[in-house]
Amino acid sequence: MAEVISFCWIAMELVSEFLFCECFLQRRKWNYITYIAISLTLIFVFLYSNSSNKIVPSAYITPLFYFVLFFFCYKGLWQRRILSVIMCSLLLIIVDALIMYVWSAIFHISIEEIRERKYTYFSVGTICKSTSLLLAWLFYRSISRSHKEQLRIRWLFLTLLFPAISYFTLIIIYREYRFEGDLTTRALGITLIIAIANIATMYTINQLEKSEKNSQRVALLNQQMDIQTESILGLEKSYRSQRAVSHEFTHHLNTISALLEKQQYVAAEQYVHKLQEQQTTRVFVVNSHHPVVDAVLNQKYQTAKEQGVDMQITVSDLSELSLPTEMLVVILSNLLDNAIEASSQYAGEKVVQFSMILTDKLTLSIRNSTKPVQIVNGTPITTKLDKDNHGYGLQNVERLLDGLAAEHAWSYQDNWFSFVAEIPAA
Amino acid sequence: MNTNKFEVFGEVDTFQKAKVLTGMYTVLLCDDDAAFLKELQTHVANIFSKRNDRAKIHTFTEMEGIGESTLAQCDIAILDIDFTGKRYNGIDIARRLRAARNDAVIIFLTNYIEYAPEGYEVRAFRYLLKSEMGQKIDRYLDQAIEHLAAEGESIRFQISGEIIDIPIKDILYMESQLHKVKVFVQLPNSKKIGAYTFNSPIGKVEEDLSGKGFLRIHKSYLVNMAHIQKYTCHQAELDNGMILKASAAKYAEQKAQYLLWKGELING
Q1: Residue A285: is its pLDDT beyond 70?
Q2: In Å, how far are A299, A310, A342, B188 from A304, measured between CA atoms?
Q3: E-assigned strands of A119-264?
Q4: Could you tell me the pLDDT band of residue A78, with boundaries at 50, 70 and 90?
Q5: Is the distance from CB of B255 to CB of A406 less than 8 angstroms?
Q6: Would you say the ipTM is above 0.90?
Q7: Is the per-residue pLDDT at A283 higher than 70?
Q8: Topology annotation, domain B18-151
């Protein structure tokens, strides 16, 4: 009977841990191996807790079992997974300790005496585990589940320390005061203080995450503004160049007409040929029938040319493209800026191939020669030294593409970086 | 549906490139500037000579002179875009070429580059400024030849002692049927589909065809991506209207592979 109850408590504890972790961690794909791992953890924890010759008390060991299990069940930074396991274990032990101490204080008996009274212990234990389960469930239902890892690793590591120390302090207090019925009130007070301090810590972590999220949003907005400004300046530059070309054009027309008036036909023909040979740089080289796309591509083409990058473009008729222009500018500018910069820094052939094809969906594709690029979890990692303030460009692109329900892929192979996106109903 | 039993001819030398099968390249050069055309011809001939490849080079200063048989044989075309005083341009020549020879490689060589939908429509391979011809044409021709070779790759089978080369581009998909693989092929100049069967696990065929544009959309289907019209997490629609069941479990990974392949195809 005692074993069955013990097994039920461990199962309730494990469910509470899962409910808590569901709020903060992103699941891996669960399959039969996951369920085997869960069952094995349950059995191990049960066997260890009920073992008579334990070297280390089970309270110290169970978080370790849970961390190993959650390593298989969830993905993300390991620091975040440890934090989730510790916070949940802490919650469970605080609930256990508080209920035990309150019971002990009300009935003037020590914790050890509660443990010795079999039915009392089963009742109090069941109340403890049910309360933990209820709290975890309420937490699971109330909190908005955000799996995005906002906190930087150094902050995550620092936030681990206090809950971890609290957890072990509570276990020590619990073990030390279990025989002292008279000191229960003191233990209850200390436990309450630790619980309040940890709630404050959790609040601080939450505030830090919000602040981090806001910083990222500000950085993204700044980047969008930079791109818009750059586009406006690029357009202005193109406009000035076009005006200069128009001015020269008038001048050339005057010369040709003067030659024709003087009936110097051969000289006029030679002049035209000379112009044809010289006039190789056009201000506008892209004509997709979409003014915004053309403006961005023309500007980037000139930038690529200035940096010695051979930019090859394929466009279909984009006149029917109905994507919001601000999104288009940010997506194209970020992708092309990255491609041109990476290619210009490559020692071999400097090439950027770009295509934008509109059918029932928009297919956007970029290939560029580059130095090796690291792709982690399907996303390229920035090579810029100041990693904290760079890499927002691609984040911005991914965020916008996600918003458009687009499917996309990145790859790097043999000094070629590729990006392709398929945007529906564009 | 015609079904024959085949055995794979050799394990290693299954694929053979088009260059070996063709033996010689037919190149079409077209520019209204006769002097420049001459210079271009010399340049192109030197490039093929340096590569130890043989090329039959046809030069034209106007579209009217280009015969249908020349277009039908053309592997690579280098075309000017602007033809002074003519009612046609290089795009019109490219359209004629596409009608006669769908898989030819077209390079536009021009004084003024304009990337426009017309270029996409005729599947222009590269654009080259005349002023940059010396620096880039070698590289572009090398890429064009590589492209042709990849386009012409085929799988070689031996059937009752007779060797048959099936161009990869004609293979629609392969289906695993117990320990056999059934290859469905679009018959040339016909809407009919042929099927060949040989003994092999489909996983082995997938491994052999790695990097040749095939996608394992389902445990039973290995599909030629060139024939995929639409790919969702439940099915793949082929360009002949056939619908094959797709596995949802590996969709994200397979779709990424398909997208990257498509991007490479468009960018040449």
Answers
A1: yes
A2: 9, 7, 11, 43
A3: none
A4: confident
A5: no
A6: no
A7: no
A8: Rossmann fold (3.40.50)
Cα→Cα distances B3→A25, B166, B194, B244, Å: 53, 15, 7, 20
Task: Extract the tokens encoding A414.
Answer: 């043999």
Residues of B in contact with A366 (CB under 8 A): 263
Burial of B144 (0-12, 13-18, 19+ CB in 10 A): buried
Searching chain B, which residue's CA lies closest to the CA of residue A409? Answer: B256
> What are the Cα distances from residue A235, in Å, to A10, A86, A232, A317, A329?
67, 55, 5, 21, 13
Q: Are B128 and B110 in contact (CB under 8 A)?
A: yes
Report the number of distinct structural domains present in chain A.
2
What is the Cα–Cα distance from B176 to A184, expressed in whole angstroms?
A: 71
Long-range own/partner contacts, residues A28-32 (CB < 8 A, 24 or more apart): A28/A72, A28/A73, A28/A74, A28/A75, A30/A73
What is the least distance, in Å, from the CA of A284 to any CA of chain B?
8
> According to the model, what pLDDT value does residue B9 have?
40
- Residue range A232-272, pLDDT digits in tens: 777 777 777 777 777 777 788 888 888 898 888 888 888 88
Question: Which of B80, B84, B111, B115 has the highest number of chain A CBs within 10 A, making it the mutation to test binding with A?
Answer: B115
From residue B102, alpha-carbon distances to A96, B27, B80, B153 in Å are: 76, 15, 19, 16
- Token pair of A257 as six digits: 């007409």
Given the candidates 3.90.420.10, 3.90.170.10, 2.40.50.1020, 3.90.950.20, the CATH classification of the domain at B3-17+155-267 is 2.40.50.1020
Distance of residue B247 Cα from the nearest chain A Cα, in angstroms: 15
- Contact criterion met (CB < 8 Å) for A279 and B111: yes
Q: Is A237 helix (H, G, I), strand (E, B) or coil?
A: helix
Distance CA A140, CA A47 (A): 29
